[in-house]
Amino acid sequence: MAEYTVMSYNIEHMNRMFQNNVIKPEEEARAQKIASVIREINPHVLGICEAANAPAEHSFFIENYLPGYQLACGVSRGGQNLVFYYREPFRLVAVDDAFSFYEPWEADIENDGLKEVHKWERKPLEAVFEIGAGGQRIRLIMVHAKSKGVFSVVDIYNFQKISLANRKRLLGQAIKLKERLDQLTSEPDPVPVMVMGDMNDGPGMDPFEMMVGRSFVETVMGSVYDPGRIFHNTLWWMSKDPALKKKLWTVDFPDPIVKHPMGYRHRVWLDHILVSQDMLQPDSSVRYVTNSGMIASGRRDAWKASDHFAVYCGIEAD
Length: 318
Description:
The structure is a single chain. The radius of gyration is 19 Å and the shape is globular. The chain is 24% helix and 27% strand. Strands 1, 4, 5, 6, 17, 18 and 19 form a 7-stranded mixed β-sheet that branches. It has a 6-stranded mixed β-sheet with strand order 7-10-11-12-16-13, with helices on one face. A two-stranded antiparallel sheet has the order 2-3. It is of the alpha+beta class. Helix 3 (156-185) links the parallel strand 11 (137-144) and strand 12 (193-198).
């Protein structure tokens, strides 16, 4: 059996690094740091959030900073695009074949009998790969969920109101994504599925999620009352190790309300990789390598490359 690495990376405003499809001179140092973070892990498949918009921009970046990779992209998601880079022996079978599933929909989030219209700011990107010509197949779903952040100048009351609205939008997206995952895992001969990206949510519920009653990550992972369709979080094991638990965060930011006199910042775990239940079984065609989920190095270059740390895990296939 052979082992492969899958990585998810939010590259902050990658789209702004280009002009006329090439890296701006003032962004060349940052591009080198981004490539360094990626090369250190050397993934076979890399999912990028906040990716550049044009295929020509990715072609330039790959040719000059990450030779050996190929691009898998579907319909552009705009200034914060979603794409995959992949290399041998992975081969692209299909991309964006579920694009229409993520069109605006109606859902009753508050169970009050009233349905609201929901949409994705960036529709998830799905791609099916085979590992080697005619080899085992796996479906990867790249997600960049609604941000919880409040980016306008508001008073406390409006901050709370917008924050609550953002949690409802996140929950609507989580329910839609879980519907898709249930659909995929219920097929007669399901292909293993990995869901990854910047989910803008961590474990547990913040005060506004408590008001809604559910959170994004736990909703997508699934219910204990339907254990066969629970998705496994590949980084959870880090929380069981006291030393690793302190490193279990992928982004930090200042308090939106109060500036701490010591400059302390919130450190949160927003970037995840989830795997379908079948990938935990020893007889599965493609398997998750136990306790291989990790956060990429937090060295100085990584801080300057993006505002998120990358996450990755190992998989194996016969």
